[in-house]
Design a protein that fits this description.
This protein has 132 residues and is an all-alpha fold. The chain has a domain at 4-86. Helices cover 72% and strands 0% of the residues. The chain is built from two helices and no strands. The protein has helices spanning 4-92, 112-117. The longest helix is centred in the middle third of the chain and has 89 residues, at 4-92. The protein is rod-shaped, with a radius of gyration of 44 Å. The protein starts with a helix and ends in a 15-residue tail after the last helix.
Length: 132
C-alpha cells in the first residue's frame, strides 16, 4: 500500500517539476526576446554594411577616375616635353648657308602686351609634374 509519506514525497517532486517548468518558460521567453532583438540588430547592421559597400565602390571609382585623369595629364605633359625637345633639337641642328640666303627666318616679333598676359608654367623637375 501507498503510505502518506510517499504521497508527500511525490507531491514535493511534482511541485519542484512545476516550478522548474515555470522557470524554464520564463527563461525561454527572455531568450526569445533577446533573439528577436539581436535579429533586428543584425538586419540593421546588414543594411549599414550594404551602404558602406556602395559608398566604398563610389569612392574607389572616384579614385580610379582621378588617377586616370592624372595619367592623361602626365602623358600630355610628356608629349609636350618631347615635342618641345624635338623642336629644340631641330632648331639647334647646323644648317649650311647658301650664298644669298639667310638662315634667319622671317619671324614677326611677338607683341609685348600679348606675352605679358600669357603665363608660362614652371619647368618640370625630372620630367615629373608637381601636383602639390
Amino acid at each position: 500500500m501507498v503510505t502518506f509519506e510517499q504521497i508527500q514525497l511525490l507531491e514535493s517532486k511534482v511541485r519542484q517539476a512545476v516550478d522548474l517548468i515555470a522557470s524554464l518558460r520564463e527563461e525561454n521567453g527572455a531568450l526569445r526576446k533577446t533573439l528577436s532583438n539581436d535579429e533586428k540588430r543584425i538586419e540593421e547592421l546588414e543594411v549599414l554594411i550594404d551602404s558602406f559597400k556602395r559608398d566604398q565602390g563610389k569612392i574607389e571609382e572616384g579614385i580610379i577616375s582621378a588617377l586616370q585623369q592624372l595619367d592623361a595629364l602626365e602623358s600630355s605633359a610628356v608629349e609636350v616635353q618631347q615635342h618641345d625637345g624635338e623642336a629644340t633639337s631641330t632648331a639647334e641642328a647646323p644648317i649650311e648657308e647658301t650664298e644669298g640666303e639667310s638662315l634667319q627666318p622671317d619671324i614677326a616679333e611677338p607683341d609685348i602686351a600679348e606675352s605679358e598676359d600669357v603665363e608660362e608654367p614652371a619647368p618640370d623637375r625630372n620630367g615629373e609634374l608637381d601636383i602639390f
